[in-house]
From TrEMBL, chain A:
Presence of the UniProt keyword Transmembrane in the record: yes
Keyword Oxidoreductase (UniProt): no
Domain ABC transmembrane type-1: start-end pairs: 92-307
Family: Belongs to the binding-protein-dependent transport system permease family.
TM segment ranges: 37-59, 95-118, 130-149, 178-203, 233-249, 284-308
Keywords annotated in UniProt: Cell membrane, Membrane, Transmembrane, Transmembrane helix, Transport
Primary subcellular site in the record, as a coarse category: membrane
Name of the protein this chain belongs to: Sugar ABC transporter permease
Localization per Swiss-Prot or TrEMBL: Cell membrane
TrEMBL record, chain B:
Name used for this protein in its record: Carbohydrate ABC transporter permease
Entry keyword annotation includes Isomerase: no
Alphabetical UniProt keywords: Membrane, Transmembrane, Transmembrane helix, Transport
Subcellular location: Cell membrane
Membrane topology label: Multi-pass membrane protein
Main location, first listed in the record: membrane
Residue span, ABC transmembrane type-1 domain: 83-275
Residues annotated as transmembrane: 15-40, 89-107, 119-142, 154-174, 195-216, 254-274
Record-linked InterPro entries: MetI-like (IPR000515), MetI-like_sf (IPR035906)
Domain of life of the native organism: Bacteria
Protein family (similarity comment): Belongs to the binding-protein-dependent transport system permease family.
Species the sequence originates in: Dongia sedimenti
């Protein structure tokens, strides 16, 4: 805290120091305000492009905008139409299925792999990058690869059948009921290695003495993890949850490349719903209303988290 | 935390451990493996099945087709033009957003003003908004500015929405930087920019690498902005790849699709292979933990 106070006092020190100099008043003013002038363009940009645009979108959701924006305020009409669109409920239902499985599987798999890698194994330098590299890929690339891999006519199903297991079927990607789970598989494939890396960093930060003490007390490896290690990873669980939830709600590219939202509307998500209503179905007001709902969901996850994070750093 | 299992011989448990790790390694490698072998097969060979088999008569035709002759939209000139579009978009966007982020981080840590914490929180929340909630106004403004559907427009978009992250990276890094050094320099009469150039920047190497990699990966891999704001010939790589794979008519050339997907992935994969450590650090820092 004291450090901060000194830092805040620094500009005054500078100003005082410079006063005797033969500077023009304009130069002095510039010197004193330079830091703020440097920050200002970024602040204006974020103020306009983030917060201004959000307000603009919220306003559009209270109009009758179709292909082009119109600015006559008509109240909650678009919101009411949004919430009476079956497709929107399908998108929310899919988000619930996809989001919960995506988060839970990534957390479980990430933790599991991190614990395995943390067993002083040989070849850690080999396994870790293999688990993590999909994170470097675009979701479009991931979707393209998995679309091919899951293609019933050429991909996994055909290959296993050719091996002699002729009754093997794996046609989720073309099934209305199961297609959403292929999005989960591809999503988990892409991101779980990253969750592993987060947990691994957490595991490496745990105090060894406590674990040795537990071992001396005769605790089994399983109990050591359950009682001592995993509870200490709580902050990582929180960070990983927030990152995953945020990615799930924003998921757009992966669905577009993997299933295109289909078959039918089987893999519609809020993000694809928003895009198609705004840009291809020319229902801008409804698209804006759906974007407002997406923003509200994300804000509900992110704001408490940021609050906790920033408060922690302050103390 | 590694004390739990000491280095023992090859017990049964160890064998199971390696077997599980090996299985997962296969799970993560398989799609990439399938992409690579498919891209070197001819269409006839692909129709025979056996996705996992090595190409019998390896051919790079699909790669040449993807790069030079595949049809995207109405033109059949391959991905090469779109690859350059992405380069022309990524380089300035990464450069500008990194410079601004470092300056912002410098001001937010070393030239604090009342309310700096609020300013930072507002910038940070900007990182996490769903871009769907700014898409329409952005399209309208880009149209007004006359840069709708151009690479310049995409650069602007990526700079603006990358600022929060770059500022976050530099702020957390500069926070640990000793204030005494800054004060000493001030007493010696060093100006705001002199301190930044002579003291902050020379010691910012690692965080610059982290930021550049993070921004490069994010912007190269972006699809939503590219699909919304860049049309036709100015589309970036990801949009072109998606158009190639999902809107082409006629014979589905899976070998070309796979070659195209690998080409689209290559720059970020290379960055990852060359500097994996920094890549991971950027991802972690992006999860707010500084």
């Amino acid at each position: 805290m004291s450090v901060e106070q000194t830092v805040e006092a620094v500009p005054q020190v500078l100003a005082a120091r410079n006063q005797p100099r033969p500077d023009s008043p304009a130069g002095l003013w510039l010197q004193r305000h330079l830091p703020n002038l440097v920050l200002t363009p970024s602040l204006l940009a974020i103020g306009l492009f983030v917060y201004g645009f959000i307000l603009w979108t919220i306003y559009l959701s209270f109009t009758r905008s179709k292909i082009l924006p119109v600015y006559a305020f008509v109240g909650t009409e678009a919101h009411q139409r949004l919430w009476s669109t079956p497709n929107w409920y399908k998108a929310l239902e899919n988000l619930a299925i996809f989001g919960s499985l995506y988060i839970i599987i990534c957390l479980a798999l990430g933790l599991f792999l991190a614990i395995l890698i943390d067993q002083k194994i040989r070849g850690e330098g080999l396994f870790r990058p293999i688990f993590l590299y999909p994170m470097a890929l675009s979701f479009i690339v991931t979707g393209t690869a998995w679309k091919w891999f899951l293609n019933p006519g050429y991909g996994l199903q055909k290959t296993v059948q050719d091996w002699g297991w002729t009754s093997f079927t794996f046609d989720w990607i073309s099934s209305t009921d199961m297609a959403i789970y292929t999005v989960v598989i591809a999503g988990v494939w892409q991101v779980s290695g990253f969750v592993m890396a987060m947990f691994l960093a957490g595991l490496r930060g745990i105090d060894n003495d406590m674990l040795r003490a537990a071992q001396i007390d005769g605790a089994s490896a399983f109990n050591t993890y359950r009682r001592i290690v995993i509870p200490q990873l709580r902050p990582i669980f929180l960070s990983a949850f927030v990152v995953l939830a945020h990615m799930a709600i924003k998921s757009y590219d992966l669905v577009v490349a993997l299933t295109g939202g289909g078959p039918g509307n089987a893999t519609e998500l809020p993000a694809t719903f928003m895009y198609s209503y705004t840009f291809t179905r020319n229902q801008m007001a409804i698209g804006a209303a759906s974007a407002v709902v997406m923003l509200a969901i994300i804000a509900a996850v992110i704001i408490p988290y940021l609050y906790l994070e920033l408060k922690e750093k302050k103390s | 935390m590694s004390a739990a299992a000491g280095a023992r011989g090859l017990s049964l448990g160890r064998i199971v451990l390696y077997a599980i790790l090996g299985l997962f390694a296969i799970f993560y490698m398989l799609p990439l493996f399938v992409m690579i072998v498919t891209s070197f097969k001819s269409l006839d060979e692909i129709r025979l099945g056996d996705m996992l088999g090595l190409p019998q008569q390896p051919t790079a035709d699909a790669w040449f087709a993807a790069w030079q002759t595949s049809c995207i939209g109405l033109t059949c000139e391959g991905l090469k033009g779109y690859f350059w579009n992405s380069i022309k978009m990524v380089v300035p966007a990464v450069f500008i957003s990194t410079i601004l982020g470092s300056l912002n981080g410098y001001v937010l840590t070393k030239w604090r003003f009342p309310g700096h914490r609020w300013v930072f929180a507002l910038m940070l929340f900007g990182c996490f908004i769903p871009f769907q909630s700014v898409l329409v106004p952005m399209a309208l403004i880009l149209g007004k500015l006359g840069i709708a559907g151009t690479t310049a427009g995409l650069v602007l978009v990526h700079v603006v929405y990358g600022l929060g992250f770059t500022t976050l990276f530099f702020r957390n890094y500069y926070e640990a930087f000793p204030n005494e050094l800054i004060r000493a320099a001030q007493i010696d009469g060093a100006s705001f920019f002199q301190i930044f150039r002579r003291i902050m920047l020379p010691s910012s190497g690692p965080i610059i690498v982290v930021t550049v990699i993070f921004q490069f990966t994010n912007i190269w891999n972006d699809f939503l902005f590219g699909a919304s704001f860049a049309s036709g010939d100015s589309a970036p790589m990801t949009v072109a790849l998606n158009n190639l794979v999902n809107t082409s008519t006629g014979v589905r050339e899976y070998n070309v699709y796979m070659a195209a997907a690998i080409i689209a992935a290559l720059p970020t994969l290379l960055v990852y292979i060359i500097s994996g450590r920094y890549f991971v650090r950027g991802l972690m820092a992006g999860a707010v933990k500084g």
